[in-house]
């Protein structure tokens, strides 16, 4: 039985390019499609668009997580081994492990002749959105032998959005997530590591579906498709590259300009989401505390009671490399508890 991507029993989550309903394109980490089916045969059809690193597809089948290497270009057919179950029913969550180091089109699936595609449970009513960098994307999170250490050499194999603090937080809150996260990205264009030397910042990427110029033209996101009740802004770490203006001169021109851009970004989010709680933070990843001070000042000056700043217990004092699974779990536990303590309209 062939299953087309626009089948009504498939459940999607994330910013997805639906220009072609028969080939929806997954761009951001944590973007997913869920399906329930009968039988013991399953094939998945993917067309990958490669920018850098090796690209992997993530999936959970009956709760067991696996990954599959995708061809750098063209189509990949994944024949997935399906275990026997007492009732013959299975649940699959297919998801994007990595950021815009690649995009892929989901071309559908195939199950056995005479088998059925079942309805999935409804999405959670709680919805969160995260704007962040590689830590929010779960980059190098699976390098668990390097907890608290610099990153090992890698080519994308350790990156897994399932183990990002962002998705862990969403699962703790029983919330749907849109994870607008990109490795190397800073707030402002021309800073950070993403797409250097013509660095693209979150101020350009935040309202897009496609935003990596290597993979084609940018495309605007339709904000009417998803309205979160809680928004997490985790920026201010890659912003110290190529110059750590905040550490060098907190009251200097460049530092002041950054705070102004940060406030303008928050105002744009507020315009899109008038009722949302917006939580501003950085992460456990090592960085100078002046950035957190600057975020706190920017938030305080806005005087919006629904925009708050959160500092983790080990904020900026954790790993010198990327967060591994235990560190992401630490962040998620703190952040979920903090969000639950807030009064959020439409949350319950």
Which descriptors apply to this entry?
348 residues; single chain; 17 strands; globular; six-stranded antiparallel sheet; alpha+beta
Low-confidence sequence ranges: none
Overall shape: it is globular
**Helicity level:** 10-25%
What gyration radius follows from the Cα positions, in whole Å?
A: 20 Å
Biggest sheet architecture = 6 strands, antiparallel
Tally of strands: 17
Helix tally equals 7
- Given helix and strand content, the structural type is alpha+beta
Mean pLDDT: 97
User: How are helices and strands ordered from N to C?
Assistant: EEEEEEEEEEEEEHHEHEHHEHEH
Q: N- to C-terminal separation? A: 39 Å
Residues in β-strands, percent = 25-35%
Report on the structure:
There is one protein chain. The protein is an alpha+beta fold. The chain is built from 7 helices and 17 strands. Strands 1, 3, 4, 6, 9 and 11 form a 6-stranded antiparallel sheet that branches. Strands 2, 5, 7, 8, 10 and 12 form a 6-stranded antiparallel sheet that branches. Strands 14-13-15-16-17 form a 5-stranded parallel sheet, with helices on both faces. Helix 5 packs across helix 6 (290-302). The longest helix has 20 residues, at 253-272. It is globular and about 70 Å long. The mean pLDDT is 97.
